[in-house]
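Data availability (excerpt). The following record was deposited with the supplementary files.
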Amino acid sequence: MIKGSNVALADLSDDVGSVIVSLGWVSPTGEGDADVSVLLLDANGKVRSDDDFYFYNHPVAADGSVQLLGKTPTADGSEDRISFDLTAVPSGTDRIVVAASRYDGARFGELEDVRITLADAAGESLLRFAVDDADSMTAVIFGELYRRGEEWKFRAVGQGYETGLAGLATDFGVDIEDDAAAEAEAALESTEGDEQADATESAPAEEPATRTVLEAIPAPRRPEGEAVGPKKPAARPRTAKKKITLPKAVRNTLAENDSWRQARLFPVSVLKSDRDREMRATSVLLSVMAQVPEFSRRLTAGFGAPAGRMETFTEVSLPHGDSPRRPDGVIRVERAGKLWTALVETKTNGNALKADQVQAYMDIAARRGYEAVITLTNDVALEGSPLVDVKIDKRRKHKVALCHLSWAEVAYQAQMLIRHEGVSNAAHAWLLQELLHYLQHENSGCHGFQNMGPAWVPVRNGIDDETLCQGDARALEVVENWERLIRQVCLRLGGELGQKVLPVQRARRGADPKERRNRLADQLCLDGRLQAELRIDGTPGVLAISADLRTGKLRTGIDVPAPEQGYPLSWAKRLVRRLAEAPADLHVETLVDSDSGGPRGTLERLRPEPADLLPKDNGTRITGFRLSLLKNMGSGRGNAESGFIRSVDDAVHRFYTTVVVHLDAPAARRTPSKERTTTG
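Predicted structure:
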C-alpha cells in the first residue's frame, strides 16, 4: 500500500473477524528498537478513557479486543505483533490507531525497512505498508483500522511525531496526569535508557508552539475525497524467518518396544508428595519462562509486566515478622535499569490457596516495593469472585496486584505457541513441548479445574426430589464451578484448534457478575439446567451447551443461519451433504419465523430425504437450522471417567470434531458495490 491509501478488509479475506498486525524494522547496529502502542478512538477522535490506550505496561484489553503479543526476532531485525478481535471491539470505537515510538533521543531514521503488515485469522498475510519518510520522528502512526458501516477498513497513515509517545497519547485524549498513566509517563521520562524517554516532550513536529498533529492525521475521509488503495496486494509478503512449530504427526519411534521410555527433561516418576509436586512444577515452569520470552510474555503481560530480560528464582527466603517466608518462586524483569518483581505461590492437585499465606506475601511485596503476587493453581478465577480474600492497607502508596493463573491456561499458552503460532527457534519449541508433556502427565498434579465441589451432589439430589429452593447458597456454588468449567473447556478447545474460543455472556454490559450468577443460580433451582455458549472463530454460530440435571442429559448444539441466496431445498440438500461424516443420531431442526416451529428429525432419517426439512406451508420463511447432539451426563463431581467434568469435555470435543468442523465458515458481509461507493 501507499501512504494515504485504504482498503476494506473483507475485500482481502473472508476471515477477518480477528487479525494480527505486525510492526517491523531492521537496525543496522543491532541495538535499535521501538515500542508499539494502540489507541481506541471514538467518533470525536479521542479515547473514551485511559483504558483505551494500550502499551507495554497495559498490553491486554479486558474484553479481548486488543492484545500486545510482544517482540519476536526475525532474521534481520525484530517484529512486534498485536492481536485484534474486531468482533469484540466496543461499539463506541470508530478508529484503532496503531503506532510505535523510540526512546532516549533515537529517531526512526536510524532504522531500516520500517513497515506494517496485516494477516487474517488464518495467518495469511493480506497487506504491507512501508514507512519511508520518518527520519526525524520519535513516534510514528503506522496505520489505523476504522469502521465503515458493518465492515472494517485499513488506512496506511505513516504520520510522524517529533514529540514521542507522550505527545501522541495526549493529543488523542489520554490524561497523563492520572494514576493510570503516571506509571507510563514515568517510564517514558527515564534518562537511564528507558525505552520511552521521549514522552516528556509535548509539542508536535509541525508547529512546536501548538498542538496540530491531529489535523495532520484526519479522520477517515468521505468517498468523494478518499484515496482508494488496491483491493488486492500485488504480492503477499512473508516474514523473513519462518517460525518454528512442532509437527502434528508424531514421528515413528526408534524404541524396540513399548517398555522403552523416552528420556524426559522434566521427569515426574519420582514425585511422591504434594510438596514435591509443587516444588517441581514451580521450578519447571519458571525455568522455561526464563528461557522462552514468547511464552513468558504471554503469561505475564496481562499482569503489567514489561517486556525485558527475565530471571526466575525458587524457594527465596524473605523476612516477615519473627520468621522468614519462602514463596514458591520469584519473577524479576529488567527493563532499562528498572525492575518489575512478582512473588509466586503455587498449588497442585486439589490443594487450595491459604488466605494467610497469600496475605503475608502481599504484605511483603508492599513493603519491598514489588509489583505483584501471582497465584498458580488448578482452580479458575472468576471476575468479581477472588479465590482468596486479602486485606489491602489503603494507607500504603505502593499498590500490589494480586493475579491468578490456572495450570490449564499455562498449558493452553504453551500449546498455542508450539502447535499453531510458532516460536523463534527449535530449542524453544522443544522446551515448551517438554513443559506441556510434564503438565499433562497424570502424576504432575497440574491438570486444571477438576472438581465441581461439595455442593454438587446435594444440588443434584435437591433437583431430583424438587426440594432445592431459590436463594440456596449451594446452587450458587454449582453455578460458579460451572462457569469455571466452561472457561477451562474454552482453553482446552482453543489450544487444540489454534483458534480463539470464548464464553458468551448474555448479560447487559456493565452488569455485576455476582448478580448475574445469583440469577443463574435461581434459574437452576427452577428448571434444573446449567447452560453456556461458546464463540469459536470461523464457525457460523455459537456452540450451546446445556446440562439437564433432571434427566441426566448433556445437549450440545449450534444454530446455522440460512443462506441469503438460493432456494430452501438447495439449502437442505447442501446441509445434509456437508454432514455426511456427522453422527447418525444428530438432531436437525428447521428454524422458521413462526411460532409453530419447523420440521425436525435425526440425520439418519433425513439423509435419503432432505426435503423433509422444508415446512409444509410454502409461505413460511426458513431462518436457519439447529443441529444438536445428546449424550448421558456424568454423575460424579470429579474428573474421573464417570465424572461430570469429563463428560462435558468429551461432549464439546465430539460435537466440534464431528459436526461443527464440517460446516461452512460464516460468509463475510460484503456491502454491494453500489452501496460501497457511497460509504467511505
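Summary of structural features: DSSP finds 15 helices and 23 strands in the chain.
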